[in-house]
C-alpha cells in the first residue's frame, strides 16, 4: 500500500536507502532532504558509483586500501585533473567541447618553466602561465565562436597545432627545474601538510568556487541558458558568443593551473606535459553526470567523477590485477555510469 | 497626445535578394493596444524581430520616445522598456522557472553573484500576479514539466517583471485552451489599464478585433492598412479587407463583386 503513495520521481534505492519508509509524502520542496536529493541527483548518483567501486576494491585487497600511501599518491595527481575537469563541465553545459586543453596545459606550463629557468620567482612564472592559458583559451574560443567552427574538430586541431609547436621548438627536450624545491611557491602549492599533499586543498577550493560560479553566479546561469537554448538566450539579450568564448577562457585558465601543478610535482617540464589527461578528464566529466546535450551539468559530480577515474587505475593494480585490466575497468565504469545517469535523469525538451 | 513609445520609419529588411519588409512605418503610443495582422509571409515575424532587437533592419530608422537609436540590439530593446513574448516563448526548458523569468536580466549583487532569495520571491509574486497559482509548482520547478499554458505564463511573467512600456505578444493565443486564452485577454486589458501598451500579433482576426484599439494590416512586407477601432465595424470588415489585399480581383464566390471572368485571367 505504501507503494502507491510513492511519487513518480522516486530516487533509486542506492541513494535514499531501501529502509526508508515514507508514510506520508509531502510536496517536493517541503522536505529539505528530498529537495536536496532532487537537486543533486546526478552528483549523488556519481557518489554512489564511487562508493560501490571503492567497496569492491577494499573487499578485494583490504591491506592495500587501508594504507595511507595509496591515497596520498592519488591526492597528489588528482588535483591536476580537477583543475581541467571543472571548467570542462562549464564547456559541456554550454553545448560545446574543448579537446585543446592538454596542449594548453603543456604550453602554459612551458611558459612557467621558461620563467623559472630564467631565474625569476616561480610566482611570476605562475602568473605568466595563467596569462598564457587565458590567451590560448581566448584564441581557441574565438576561433570556434567567431569562426563558426565545430568545437569538436576545431579544438582537436588546435590541440595538435599547439602541441606540434611545442615539440618543434623544444625538439622533444625536457626542462629540469631543480631550483623549485627551495622556493616559496613550492611550499605553498606542492608540499605536504600533516602528510596530506597541499595540492588537494587548492583543488578543493577551486571546485567549491567553481560550483558557486555554476549555481550562484550570473556566469553559470548564462552558461546554462546558452547551452539549453541559444536562440532564446539571444532573444533575451544575452551575448551568446561572449558567453561561449568565456567558457573556453575558463578552460584555458584551469589548464594553465593544472599544467603548472603537474610541473611542480615532478620538478621537470616535459614537452608532452598534459597529453595523458585528455581521455581521463573527458571521461570524468561524463562519469560525473553532466549530459552531452548541454544546458545542465554538475560541477561537484564532475569532481567526484575525477576521483572515481583516478582511483580506477590505482585500484585495479592494488587489487592484485595486472595493469592489463585498467582499460577494461575504465571502460566498464564509464558505461555503467552513463547507463545509471540515463536512468537517473529526466530530459526535458 | 500620448507619448510615442516606439516609431519605425521606412524600415526595410532583406535577406539576400528576398525582401521581407519594404519600407514599413509603424508606431505605438502609450496606453494603446495595437493589433498587427497579416497572412503568412507578410513579414510579421521579421517586424517583431526588428522591434525586439533580434534582427537589425537593412535600412530605416527606429525612434524610442522620439529619439533615434543607434546600435539596436536585443539588450537595447529590453533596456528601452520593450519586452517580447515570442511565439515559441523563448524558454530554456531544462532550467527552473526562476532562471527563465530572469534570463538575461539576472538579479545580481556584489561581483555578479546572484541574489537567489530575492529572485525566488519576485518570481512567486509575478506568478501570483498573472494568476499562475498551481500548488504543484514552485518557482524552482523545471519549465519542461509545465503545460503549454503554464509556459506561456512564465514567458508573460518575464515580460512584465520590469514594468515594460511596450509588451509585444506574438501569437499569444495559438495552441491555448479557451480558459488560457481568456487569461491572456484579461492580461492585455490589465496592461492597458495600467497605462502601458501592447502590440498584439495574431492569426485569429476575431481575437485581434476583440482586443485592439488600432489595427495594422501587413501584406507582403508593406503596411496595407492602418485603421482605428472606430473605422472598423466588425471583424468581417477586416477579413474582407485582407482578402481584397491578397487577391485584388476578388475571389470567385466569396464576394458579390467577384467577377469570375476577371480572376480567371
Automatic annotation (TrEMBL), chain A:
Record key words, sorted: Cell membrane, Membrane, Transmembrane, Transmembrane helix
Subcellular location: Cell membrane
Protein name as it appears in the record: Permease component of ribose/xylose/arabinose/galactoside ABC-type transporters
UniProt-annotated stretches for the region Disordered: 1-26
Biased composition (Basic and acidic residues): 1-11
Residue ranges crossing the lipid bilayer per the database entry: 42-62, 68-92, 99-120, 126-148, 193-214, 247-270, 316-339
InterPro entries on file: ABC_transp_permease (IPR001851)
Residue ranges of coiled coil: none
Matches recorded under Pfam families: BPD_transp_2
Membrane topology designation: Multi-pass membrane protein
Main location: membrane
From TrEMBL, chain B:
Domain ABC transporter: 6-245
Alphabetically ordered keywords of this record: ATP-binding, Nucleotide-binding
Tree of life domain: Bacteria
Molecular function GO terms recorded: ATP binding
Pfam families: ABC_tran
PANTHER family: CARBOHYDRATE TRANSPORT ATP-BINDING PROTEIN MG119-RELATED (PTHR43790), SUGAR ABC TRANSPORTER ATP-BINDING PROTEIN (PTHR43790:SF8)
Protein name, per record: ATP-binding protein of ribose ABC transporter
Native species: Mesorhizobium escarrei
Amino acid at each position: 500500500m505504501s507503494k502507491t503513495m510513492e511519487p513518480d520521481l522516486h530516487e533509486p534505492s542506492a541513494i535514499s536507502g531501501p529502509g526508508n519508509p515514507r508514510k506520508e509524502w509531502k510536496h517536493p520542496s517541503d522536505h529539505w532532504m528530498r529537495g536536496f536529493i532532487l537537486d543533486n541527483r546526478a552528483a549523488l548518483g556519481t557518489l554512489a558509483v564511487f562508493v560501490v567501486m571503492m567497496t569492491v576494491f577494499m573487499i578485494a585487497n583490504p591491506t592495500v586500501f587501508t594504507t595511507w600511501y595509496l591515497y596520498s599518491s592519488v591526492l597528489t595527481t588528482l588535483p591536476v585533473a580537477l583543475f581541467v575537469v571543472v571548467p570542462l563541465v562549464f564547456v559541456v553545459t554550454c553545448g560545446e567541447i574543448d579537446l585543446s586543453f592538454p596542449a594548453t596545459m603543456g604550453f602554459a606550463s612551458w611558459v612557467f618553466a621558461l620563467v623559472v629557468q630564467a631565474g625569476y620567482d616561480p610566482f611570476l612564472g605562475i602568473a605568466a602561465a595563467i596569462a598564457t592559458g587565458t590567451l590560448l583559451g581566448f584564441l581557441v574560443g574565438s576561433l570556434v565562436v567567431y569562426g563558426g567552427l565545430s568545437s569538436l574538430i576545431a579544438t582537436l586541431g588546435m590541440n595538435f597545432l599547439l602541441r606540434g609547436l611545442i615539440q618543434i621548438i623544444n625538439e622533444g627536450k625536457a626542462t629540469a627545474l631543480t631550483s623549485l624545491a627551495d622556493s616559496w611557491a613550492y611550499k605553498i602549492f606542492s608540499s605536504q601538510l600533516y602528510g596530506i599533499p597541499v595540492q588537494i586543498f587548492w583543488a578543493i577550493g577551486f571546485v567549491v568556487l567553481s560550483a558557486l560560479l555554476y549555481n550562484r553566479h550570473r556566469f553559470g546561469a548564462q552558461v546554462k541558458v546558452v547551452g539549453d537554448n541559444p536562440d532564446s538566450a539571444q532573444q533575451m539579450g544575452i551575448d551568446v558568443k561572449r558567453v561561449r568564448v568565456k567558457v573556453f577562457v575558463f578552460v584555458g585558465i584551469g589548464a594553465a593551473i593544472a599544467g603548472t601543478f603537474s610541473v611542480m610535482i615532478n620538478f621537470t617540464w616535459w614537452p608532452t606535459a598534459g597529453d595523458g589527461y585528455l581521455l581521463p578528464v573527458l571521461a570524468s566529466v561524463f562519469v560525473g553526470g553532466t549530459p552531452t546535450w548541454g544546458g545542465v551539468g554538475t560541477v561537484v559530480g564532475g569532481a567526484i567523477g575525477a576521483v572515481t577515474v583516478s582511483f580506477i587505475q590505482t585500484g585495479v593494480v592494488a587489487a592484485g590485477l595486472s595493469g592489463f585490466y585498467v582499460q577494461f575497468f575504465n571502460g566498464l565504469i564509464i558505461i555503467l555510469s552513463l547507463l545509471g545517469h540515463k536512468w537517473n535523469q529526466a530530459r526535458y525538451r | 497626445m500620448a507619448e510615442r513609445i516606439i516609431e519605425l520609419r521606412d524600415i526595410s529588411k532583406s535577406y539576400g535578394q528576398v525582401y521581407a519588409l519594404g519600407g514599413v512605418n509603424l508606431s505605438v503610443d502609450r496606453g494603446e493596444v495595437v493589433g498587427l495582422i497579416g497572412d503568412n509571409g507578410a513579414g510579421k515575424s521579421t517586424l517583431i524581430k526588428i522591434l525586439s532587437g533580434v534582427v537589425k533592419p537593412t535600412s530605416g530608422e527606429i525612434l524610442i520616445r522620439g529619439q533615434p537609436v543607434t546600435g539596436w540590439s536585443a539588450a537595447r530593446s529590453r533596456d528601452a522598456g520593450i519586452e517580447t513574448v515570442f511565439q515559441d516563448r523563448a524558454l530554456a526548458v531544462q532550467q527552473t522557472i526562476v532562471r527563465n523569468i530572469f534570463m538575461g536580466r539576472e538579479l545580481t549583487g556584489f561581483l555578479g553573484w546572484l541574489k537567489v532569495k530575492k529572485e525566488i520571491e519576485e518570481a512567486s509574486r509575478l506568478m501570483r500576479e498573472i494568476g499562475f497559482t498551481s500548488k504543484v509548482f514552485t518557482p524552482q520547478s523545471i519549465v519542461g514539466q509545465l503545460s503549454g499554458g503554464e509556459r506561456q505564463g512564465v514567458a508573460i511573467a518575464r515580460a512584465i517583471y520590469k514594468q515594460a512600456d511596450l509588451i509585444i505578444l506574438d501569437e499569444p493565443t495559438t495552441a491555448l485552451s479557451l480558459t488560457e486564452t481568456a487569461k491572456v485577454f484579461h492580461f492585455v486589458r490589465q496592461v492597458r489599464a495600467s497605462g502601458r501598451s501592447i502590440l498584439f500579433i495574431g492569426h485569429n482576426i476575431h481575437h485581434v478585433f476583440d482586443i485592439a484599439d488600432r489595427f495594422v494590416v501587413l501584406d507582403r512586407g508593406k503596411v496595407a492598412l492602418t485603421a482605428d477601432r472606430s473605422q472598423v465595424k466588425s471583424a468581417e470588415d477586416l477579413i474582407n479587407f485582407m482578402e481584397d489585399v491578397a487577391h485584388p480581383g476578388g475571389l470567385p464566390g466569396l464576394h458579390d463583386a467577384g467577377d469570375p471572368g476577371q480572376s480567371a485571367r
